[in-house]
Structure formats: C-alpha cells, structure tokens
Design goal:
about 190 residues; alpha+beta; Aldehyde Oxidoreductase, domain 3; 5 helices; 9 strands; about 30% helix
C-alpha cells in the first residue's frame, strides 16, 4: 500500500475502505497499488497500531521524484479538476544560537500516523475531495530541503485549496512530531510550531 495516501472512492469516506474488517492488505493493494520506489530504504509502509492506516513518514527529506509521482498518478482520474500542494521546507533561520543548518524530526509513528489519518478523514468530511496525500520527514533534513508534502485533489480549485490549508494547519496544531533545530554553531533547540 502506498504510504501517505487517503482516498475517497466515489464519494464514500475512506472509513469504508480503511476500517472494513473484511478488507485484507492484499485487497487494499489492488485498490491503491504502491508506486514504484515506495518500498525503498527507510520507508515503512505500515505502523504497528493498525495495519490499515498508511505510514506517512519518509526517512530524510522528501524526494522530488515522490512529489512528481504523486502528481502524475492523479492524471488518470479525469473527474478531478484541481490539485493544491503545500511543500514545507527547512529554513536557515538566523536565531540567537546561530543559523539553522538542519532539523532532526522524531515522532511516535503510531500516534502521528493515527493523527494524520484523523486529519485526512476530517478533510474528507469538510470538503468535497477525491484524495489527500501527506508525507512528513523523519530524521535529519537540511536547510533548503523539503520536510512536509500535502497534496489535495477535488473537482474544483476552491475545495482543493481550502482543504490543503486545513490539512497543513491541522498537522501543525495536532501532529505529535518534534523537530530539533541544529545550528551551524553546534548548538541545538527544540522547535516550536507556529
């Protein structure tokens, strides 16, 4: 199963797919086949808590080819009229302790993936969406590299754009992800989400 993907099938909320006890992982893979390369080193498809909630984490920065594939795969869905994308990038902020060189992200994967799933479900409830994709980095991400990818698809641009902003803000507010800012001086501090 492709990590980070949440889909609505013909307007049915994803709960009908993800929470159905009768669906095996094998049958879900027929509905949502993994993209080539998603089985790479450091990418874990499932979390221990619930095998039907996809893992949204990528080790290190989010590769640009993963972003491109996510966009490309949506082209076959001809009822989609709009996509919106948010890319979060590590900034080289100049702070009292020095310049940020990288952020080291850590998370409780079980809890964080469950929160991503809840946020996705909430987005499907609030907006008329065809799909939501979320990828977040784990480990070290250098200044200038991508650490968060949110992608929403809908029939109309307003829904896609509003949903994307909603998902990003919910992630910043609710996801138990922690970033240690590492400075060029060798110092570090825990990042506060704003």
């Amino acid at each position: 199963m492709q990590g980070g993907n949440f889909h609505s099938l013909h307007g049915t909320p994803t709960d009908s797919v993800f929470n159905s006890a009768s669906k095996s992982v094998h049958s879900l893979q027929k509905v949502f086949p993994p993209l080539e390369g998603d089985q790479g080193v450091g990418f874990r498809n499932f979390i221990p808590m619930k095998k039907d909630i996809p893992n949204c984490f990528v080790e290190g920065p989010i590769p640009t080819d993963k972003i491109a594939r996510s966009i490309e795969e949506q082209q076959s869905y001809t009822m989609i009229g709009a996509h919106d994308i948010f890319l979060g990038q590590v900034r080289a902020d100049n702070l009292e302790q020095g310049t940020v060189a990288e952020i080291e992200y850590t998370a409780n994967l079980t809890m964080a993936n469950a929160v991503f799933h809840e946020i996705s479900e909430s987005a499907f409830t609030k907006f008329e969406l065809n799909s939501v994709k979320i990828y977040h980095s784990l480990g070290s991400v250098k200044a200038g590299e991508i650490c968060l990818f949110v992608f929403t698809s809908s029939k109309h641009r307003k829904m896609a754009m509003d949903a994307c902003r909603f998902v990003v803000e919910e992630i910043k507010e609710k996801a138990p992800i922690f970033g240690k800012e590492k400075f060029t001086t060798g110092n570090h501090q825990w990042k506060v989400n704003t």
